[in-house]
Design brief:
Elements: E1 15-16, H1 26-37, H2 54-71, E2 77-82, H3 85-97, E3 103-108, H4 111-120, E4 125-131, E5 155-158, E6 160-161, E7 166-167, E8 180-183, E9 200-204, E10 215-220, H5 237-242, H6 252-267, H7 271-290, E11 296-297, E12 308-312, H8 316-328, E13 331-332, E14 343-346, H9 353-370
Parallel strand pairs: 1-13, 3-4, 3-5, 5-8, 8-9
Antiparallel strand pairs: 2-10, 6-7, 9-10, 11-12, 12-14
Helix pairs in contact: 1-6, 2-6, 3-4, 7-9, 8-9
The protein binds pyridoxal-5'-phosphate.
């Protein structure tokens, strides 16, 4: 069996289960190949265009317009393309939104959520509104299991826990009037979302939106006025908003590539058909887990992620063998994160359904031989 491919020209590519940077749509990669040399007949490649001239003006405007169209995002939100990865948001958020000595609530559902709360301590007090650590981050709390503090400046949660393979299947409701902040790195635009429920959404592009190098921030405009302290210029959301994400040189190439992925999402028919496909894809693999006593999933079934499937075999040696044999079949980047071990199959928007079928078949065959 070889990696599932759509055309003969792509046979040198494997099935890429990487958690991030992750797989991108083939037609996007082909467009990038062309545009790196000469974009839109300008005689200049995308990486060589000025960030303040016509070609990039158009690309930035289209990226923002397409982002709004996909997420049905109104003018009361600003769309920003920042740098420094999603991790930089962990300090920009409290710097811009948390008053001196104030409290912000964090739902600790995994590794990244815990890092976010940690960074908040530079500016104020993170309150743990839910702590999944004692139960090894295997599940997502229900609304009833979340204990908010008296008057949080905001509530922060991670919609999809990339490492643990768990995902919120509802939007937690913060106390009245408190902005909801979401790290949506690994499931943004994988399903329809109601942006009006959020004060701020952020996502590093490299999981579901494009290459590494830019972080999408969707922020409600009134929050731009909240900065409770003097900030260095490039730490202020308002500065980025007032300067169309380019107070200095922005990540031109990354914004361009994310723009192409937005166009690809629109071509798929938007988020509803994408969600349907993602559900079907994940089911193919979860069905194998459910029909097996050999494989064990990390997530409690009601908390399963449609993007990252973390699981293991009965022992670490067999895990290693699984990963090695999968690689021989053209299936790469299946090693689980060092914090939980085992395997992780990341099946973002651009990962093909046929790849999930091929993987499920491999899993069954592996179990037959080693179970
Ligand atoms: C990958 C990831 C991050 C970290 O992103 P960087 O861009 O590397 O800083 C944060 N949160 C989640 C949920 C992630 O998946």
């Amino acid at each position: 069996m070889s990696a599932t491919t759509t055309t003969a020209a792509t046979t040198d590519r494997v099935l890429n289960f990487s958690a991030g940077p992750g797989v991108l749509p083939e037609e996007v990669l082909r467009q990038v190949q062309e545009d790196v040399w000469n974009i839109a007949g300008t005689g200049v490649g995308i990486m060589e265009h000025s960030h303040r001239a016509g070609t990039f003006d158009r690309i930035l405007a289209e990226s923002i317009a397409d982002c709004r169209k996909i997420g049905n995002i109104g003018d009361d939100y600003e769309i920003l393309f920042l740098t420094g990865g999603a991790s930089t948001q962990n300090h920009l958020i409290p710097a811009n939104l948390l008053p001196e000595g104030g409290t912000a609530d964090y739902l600790i559902t995994g590794y990244w959520a815990s890092k976010s709360a940690q960074e908040c301590k530079v500016y104020g007090k993170p309150h743990t509104a839910f702590d999944g650590k004692p139960t090894n981050y295997t599940f997502i709390p229900s609304q009833k299991e979340i204990k908010f503090s008296e008057k949080p400046a905001y509530v922060h949660y991670t919609s999809n826990n990339t490492i643990m393979g768990t995902q919120f299947h509802y939007v937690p409701e913060p106390p009245a009037g408190v902005p909801l902040v979401c790290d949506m790195c690994s499931d943004i635009y994988s399903q329809p979302l109601d942006v009006s429920k959020y004060g701020l959404i952020y996502a590093g592009a490299q999981k579901n939106l494009g290459p590494a190098g830019t972080t999408l921030v969707i922020i409600r405009k009134d929050l731009l006025e909240r900065a409770p302290r003097p900030l260095p210029t490039l730490m202020s959301y308002k500065v980025y908003a007032d300067n169309e994400s380019r107070p200095n040189t922005p990540p031109v190439f990354a914004i361009y590539a994310v723009g192409l992925v937005f166009k690809w999402i629109l071509k798929q028919g938007g988020l509803a058909p994408i969600a349907k496909r993602n559900q079907a894809k994940a089911k193919i693999i979860y069905d194998v887990l459910d029909g097996s006593s050999f494989y064990k999933g990390h997530a409690r079934p009601d908390s399963r992620s449609l993007m990252n499937i973390s699981f293991h075999t009965p022992n670490p040696e067999t895990d290693k063998l699984f990963i090695a044999e999968a690689l021989k079949e053209g299936m790469d980047n299946l090693k689980g994160h060092r914090s939980i071990g085992g395997m992780r199959a990341s099946i973002y928007n651009a990962f093909p359904a046929e790849g999930c079928e091929a993987f499920a078949q491999f899993m069954r065959e592996f179990e037959r031989r080693h179970g």
